[in-house]
């Protein structure tokens, strides 16, 4: 029912009501196949699940077939087929069903009507729809080889194979064939390559690249034949093969519809993996430096016919390294072309043996050697395909170093008798034998402190020399070397020297040197081959302990605030060579003095060069109120003018004795502290 609104330009119709739909006919189907006719309803009222009735007519009258809601709906001539399940309804949703007819026959050709009983409040729309079904004869024939059973093929990896399928149709309709080659290596069939009903080639999953490379092809031939060609066969190509052919026709709506499908098994293919053993003839090899290393790689394969081998030698520092981490030494391709190398060569003795020769080996050639071999077979298009590749177990190669023979002698040409005297040590290389032009010597100097107990003191590195004669200093000698206090030198070709310009007590101990021999390799790098350590030389002299005494004397026994405080410090020392003294005056204030909660105040100092410095004296009103002066070499006087109550406390002299060091520098010898002098105004007269 429609309502139409007229205007000057148009007529608009607004319709609402039930719509029942079936495919647009005619539906062309092949005798003996299963036919499925869908029917759906929309825009209806009432419950969501709708019922359906199906009827059939060859000419004019309709005969009831089957119903979703009325078990008595089926007419007598269909009761047997419905009861056996040859005709049934299959619900696909609440508003859709499918009429399924198995083994359709020419007598089933006609009109099929799908009806839906009304559940609407008002009758609107259409309640049934019809579709014409046309049943044609089966004209599709699919066959393989002329043999009654499928063929069995046994192939090797890399081989090629072809198989043929014949498919023809004599259908009265204009139909197209869709041919698919399939393989089954497990329980399911998988598509290899198809020629669709639209004339397009379609590779199956996993075969896309092989199709693009031309390794998998589908060719058509005379007499409706379809050839599958497979190149570079591998283990995944083993299994059963069949030819699956479907017949398609264009429907009334121009869409393609598959009307039947047939298949035939063509062949069973077994792919035999190519066996390949790769073995290096020796296990562990020892060779002397400068000699030649000769290794043989033997390959064995069960491959027959035409093939070529490719061999590559690898070197690795570890037996656990993968080939991606290893270094390629040399390779020989399948055309027997060897990659270029100066000191390494690869020889092809026979078809199964390949020699690696490394000339003039050195220590860097020590490690693990691998041999990798691959077998290549020719293809129909003239190219080659690698069917198998194997790698040998690693062979350990140890290169023995040609060590030079020499001795090391250490002696002291200058030994100190007293502190600040010079020390000079000479490290000499003697009795040198079996050395070549590509050998050089370097030195390392070490110091070991001498302990009075049995404790072992670890040696300290003073300096070491690299292969390029670059000197690297240790922590103990770095600053003194930069200041010129320690000098390292090479006096002669075979003599290295260590000189301490001014030897101190801390330098006393044992000294030794290590002479290292370095060998030059093919790449002009230097590698240490040997170390020889000298006997130690002891640097020691008897030294008495320094002694220092400081006596403080108050010059005025009684005084009052506002007067001058005066004290002297007299210094006496022993076992110190030409000493000089530096003096520091300190005051220890009572704990009640909040100006210095730490207790001790540094007031004024005089260094060994008689330079005076105010330390922590902060009284701005008495900047010149304190004086420290040198009366004589071992006597110093301290004055404090206009004393105040806050100056009460204990006063001391802190004295440091200095002796001349190397390079005009002063070296601290010993410290001394005087007796305290008290300022106490409560008891002062």
What does this structure look like?
The structure is a single chain. The protein is mainly beta and 685 residues long. It folds into five domains: 18-136, Immunoglobulins (Immunoglobulin-like), CATH 2.60.40; 140-272, Immunoglobulins (Immunoglobulin-like, Sandwich), CATH 2.60.40.10; 276-400, Immunoglobulins (Immunoglobulin-like, Sandwich); 407-539, Immunoglobulin-like; 547-679, Immunoglobulin-like (Sandwich). It is 3% helix and 53% strand. It is built from three helices and 51 strands. The strands form eleven sheets. It has a six-stranded mixed beta sheet, with no helix packed on it. The radius of gyration is 55 Å and the shape is elongated. The chain starts with a strand and ends in a 6-residue tail after the last strand.
What's the SSE blueprint?
Blueprint: E1 2-6, E2 11-15, E3 19-21, E4 27-30, E5 35-42, E6 53-57, E7 63-67, H1 76-83, E8 87-93, E9 96-101, E10 110-115, E11 128-136, E12 140-143, E13 151-156, E14 161-169, E15 176-184, E16 190-195, E17 201-203, H2 208-212, E18 216-221, E19 225-230, E20 239-250, E21 256-272, E22 276-280, E23 284-288, E24 293-301, E25 308-316, E26 327-332, E27 344-350, E28 353-358, E29 367-378, E30 384-391, E31 395-400, E32 405-414, E33 423-433, E34 439-448, E35 460-465, E36 471-473, H3 478-482, E37 486-492, E38 495-500, E39 509-520, E40 526-533, E41 537-539, E42 547-554, E43 565-574, E44 580-588, E45 600-606, E46 612-614, E47 626-632, E48 635-640, E49 649-660, E50 666-673, E51 677-679
Parallel strand pairs: 4-11, 13-21, 23-31
Antiparallel strand pairs: 1-2, 3-5, 5-9, 6-7, 6-10, 8-9, 10-11, 12-14, 14-19, 15-16, 15-20, 16-17, 18-19, 20-21, 22-24, 24-28, 25-26, 25-29, 27-28, 29-30, 29-31, 32-33, 33-38, 34-35, 34-39, 35-36, 37-38, 39-40, 39-41, 42-43, 43-48, 44-45, 44-49, 45-46, 47-48, 49-50, 49-51
């Amino acid at each position: 029912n429609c309502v139409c609104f007229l205007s000057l330009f148009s007529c608009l119709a607004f319709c609402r009501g039930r719509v029942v739909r079936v495919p647009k006919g005619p539906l062309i189907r092949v005798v003996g196949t299963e036919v499925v006719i869908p029917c759906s309803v929309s825009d209806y009222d009432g419950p969501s699940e709708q019922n359906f009735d199906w009827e059939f007519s060859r000419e004019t009258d309709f005969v009831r077939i089957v119903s979703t809601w009325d078990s008595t709906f089926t007419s007598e001539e269909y009761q047997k087929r419905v009861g056996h399940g040859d005709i049934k309804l299959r619900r696909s949703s609440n508003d859709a069903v499918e009429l399924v007819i198995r083994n359709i026959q020419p007598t089933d050709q006609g009109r099929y009507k799908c009806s839906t009983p009304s559940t609407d409040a008002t009758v609107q729309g259409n309640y049934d729809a019809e579709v014409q079904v046309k049943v044609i004869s089966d004209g599709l024939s699919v066959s393989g080889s002329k043999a009654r059973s499928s063929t069995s093929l046994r192939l090797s990896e890399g081989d090629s194979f072809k198989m043929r399928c014949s498919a023809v149709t004599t259908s009265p309709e204009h139909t197209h064939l869709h041919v698919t080659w399939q393989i089954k290596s497990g329980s399911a069939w998988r598509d290899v390559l198809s020629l669709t009903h639209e004339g397009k080639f379609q590779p199956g999953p996993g075969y896309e690249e092989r199709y693009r490379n031309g390794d998998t092809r589908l060719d058509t031939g005379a007499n409706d034949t379809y050839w599958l060609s497979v190149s570079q066969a591998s283990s995944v190509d083993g299994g059963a093969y069949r030819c699956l052919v479907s017949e398609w026709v264009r429907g009334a709506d121009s869409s393609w519809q598959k009307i039947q499908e047939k298949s035939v098994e063509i062949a069973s293919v077994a792919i035999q993996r190519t066996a390949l053993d790769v073995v290096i003839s020796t296990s562990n090899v020892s060779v002397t430096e400068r000699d030649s290393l000769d290794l043989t790689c033997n390959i064995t394969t069960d491959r027959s016919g035409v093939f070529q081998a490719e061999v590559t030698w690898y070197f690795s520092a570890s037996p656990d390294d993968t080939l991606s981490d290893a270094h390629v030494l040399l390779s020989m391709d399948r055309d027997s072309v060897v990659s270029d190398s100066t000191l390494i060569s690869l020889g092809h003795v026979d078809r199964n043996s390949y020699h690696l020769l490394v000339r003039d080996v050195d220590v860097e050639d020590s490690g693990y050697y691998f041999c990798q071999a691959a077998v290549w077979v020719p293809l129909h298009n003239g190219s080659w395909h690698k069917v198998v590749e194997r790698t040998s177990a690693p062979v350990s190669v140890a290169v023995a170093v040609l060590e030079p023979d020499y001795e090391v002698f250490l002696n002291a040409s200058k030994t100190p008798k007293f502190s600040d005297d010079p020390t000079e040590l000479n490290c000499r290389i003697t009795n040198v034998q079996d050395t070549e032009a590509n050998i050089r010597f370097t030195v390392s100097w070490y110091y070991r402190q001498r302990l009075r107990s049995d404790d072992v003191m670890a040696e300290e590195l003073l300096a070491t020399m690299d292969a390029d004669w670059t000197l690297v200093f240790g922590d103990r000698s770095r600053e003194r070397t930069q200041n010129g206090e320690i000098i390292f030198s090479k006096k002669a070709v075979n003599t290295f020297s260590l000189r301490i310009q001014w030897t101190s007590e801390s330098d006393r101990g044992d000294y030794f040197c290590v002479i290292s021999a370095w060998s030059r390799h093919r790449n002009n790098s230097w590698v240490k081959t040997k170390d020889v350590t000298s006997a130690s030389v002891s640097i020691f002299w008897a030294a008495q302990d320094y002694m220092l005494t400081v006596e403080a004397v108050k010059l005025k026994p009684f005084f009052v605030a506002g007067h001058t405080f005066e004290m002297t410090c007299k210094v006496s020392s022993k076992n110190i060579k030409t000493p000089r003294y530096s003096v520091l005056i300190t005051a220890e204030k009572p704990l009640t003095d909040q100006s210095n909660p730490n207790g001790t105040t540094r007031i004024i100092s005089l260094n060994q060069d008689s330079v005076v410095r105010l330390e922590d004296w902060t009284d701005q009103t008495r900047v010149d109120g304190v004086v420290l002066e040198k009366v004589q070499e071992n006597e110093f006087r301290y004055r404090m003018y206009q004393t105040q109550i806050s100056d009460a406390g204990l006063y001391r002299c802190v004295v440091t004795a200095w002796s001349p060091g190397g390079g005009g520098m002063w070296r601290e010898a010993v410290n001394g502290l005087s007796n305290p002098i008290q300022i106490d105004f409560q008891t002062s007269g």
